[in-house]
Prior knowledge:
- This protein is mostly helical.
- It is built from 14 helices and no strands.
Amino acid sequence: xxxxxxxxxxxxxxLVVSLALWYIYRETVLNKNFExxxxxxxxxxxxxxxxxxxxxxxxxMFFNWGFESLKWKMLIKKTENISFGNSIxxxxxxxxxxxxxxxxxxxxxxxxFYLNKGDKVKGALISLIGSMSQFLVTIVxxxxxxxxxxxxxxxxxxLNKYVFAMLVFLVFxxxxxxxxxxxxxxALSGFSERFRxxxxxxxxxxxxxxxxxxxxxxxxxxxxxxxxxxxxxxYFLLKCFSVEIYFADAWVLVPLxxxxxxxxxxxxxxxxxxxxxxxxxxxxxxxxxxxxIVLATFSLWVINLAIPxxxxxxxxxxxxxxxx
Length: 324
């Protein structure tokens, strides 16, 4: 019986890796923008300025997932103390699993299977805290950018001062509520006791009460570092593909793209198309280089998701069988 479970687990790993690699291949090699991106990137080699932007974007990819790995190591230490190396393996494994799931909801699966001693159900709930912190940063930065966008880029649709003041108030309330909700996550353990169904699983939900306000602040700070990095990456790629945009404009328009992609539910195969659509809507306000915008969006997905997910497939295959 144990041998059959081991074989089934091995087949499951192969299935996950096969689906991930198929999806990456489908969205890169078979993507209509792949040949255009390849030709443009080949041309980048002969331009020192474009080469600099592209190389910097690639280097920042390591910092991006490095910060996420550090965040996961800090979060999971409440249930198991893991090394930074194993944290990287867990994060990239989670990315491989999530790359073909809607809104990357399967990310926690790859991560918790790298826990040896820690409770995997607790690990799954802990991953929610990390997701909440990244979501909070996206909401806060995107909401503030929305106000600047209306004020500076859409004068023909400018709202009268009373309506705009109401919008500012709603954004302010949204930000305050989101921050309070995140820092109140320890209260979720007590909240679960009010429901009979959840009360039976009190030992799992108690993990939310184990984080201090200071620890949550550090997690939020790491999430902002990641946000800053992939915003900077997007800006570098836009410059790389000859999209004329000022850094100040990028810090207003790029967060709007991330906000729109976050709040609009998507099935995974449509995610790249959704990103490209919103990128054209917002970056298109300051640049008519639609080809460059699409290629920058596509390249960001390849560098930040496809390549790390491809690397993570090796770690998924390395996950060891455990009865737990």
